[in-house]
Amino acid sequence: MTKTGEKPLEGIAEKKQLDPRALTVLIQNDPGSFALYKVTSHTSAETLFYSADRPAICGYSDAEYRALAINGNDLIYPEDQERIQADLMRMLKTGEDTLLNYRVRHRRLGFV
Predict the structure, then answer these.
(1) Cβ–Cβ < 8 Å for 86, 58
(2) Fewer Cβ atoms within 10 A, N terminus or C terminus of the chain?
(3) DSSP letters for the chain
(4) How far apart are the C-alpha atoms of 68 and 30, rounded to whole Å?
(5) Domains of the chain, with CATH numbers?
C-alpha cells in the first residue's frame, strides 16, 4: 500500500530497470517486513511502498502508520539516524542502491 493509494509497484520497476514480475515475486516471498523509499535529500526519504504487515508490526493502524511514514526519518530510532544519513549521502553521491537496517518506532514499546 502506498500513502496515496496508488498501486504499490507502479513505476518502481521501470525506474530501477527491474522486471516488475521479479519485484512482485520478491515482495510476495520475502518473510520480513520492509519498505521502499525515494531519497529526497541526505536527511530524508519519501515512502514509496511498505509491506502490508509493517503497520501492525509497529503497533499502528494502516492510517496511523501512513501518516508517520510520510517522512521515513520520523520512524527511525534517533541513535540510528546519523548512520542512516551517512548511508543516504553515499547513495546520493554514488547513485548505488543500499540496504538500510535500523530500529523503528513502535506505538507502545517505543523504539525497537
Answers:
(1) no
(2) C
(3) --TT-S-TTTTHHHHHT--HHHHHHHHHH--S--EEEEEEETTEEEEEEE-TTHHHHTT--HHHHHHHTTBGGGGB-HHHHHHHHHHHHHHHHH---------BEETTTEE-
(4) 23
(5) 12-111 (3.30.450)
Instruction: Kindly report the pTM of this predicted structure.
Output: 0.61
Q: Is the pLDDT of residue 93 over 80?
A: yes
Residue with cell 510520510: 70
Confidence band, pLDDT 50/70/90 cuts, at residue 6: very low
Q: What is the bridge-based pairing of β-strands 110-111 and 105-106?
A: antiparallel
- Contact predicate 2/48, CB 8 Å: yes
Dist CA 14 CA 85 (whole Å): 26
Residue of 73 and 60 predicted with greater confidence = 60
| Cα distance between residue 80 and residue 98, in whole Å | 16
What pLDDT, on a 0 to 100 scale, did the predictor assign at position 3?
Answer: 47
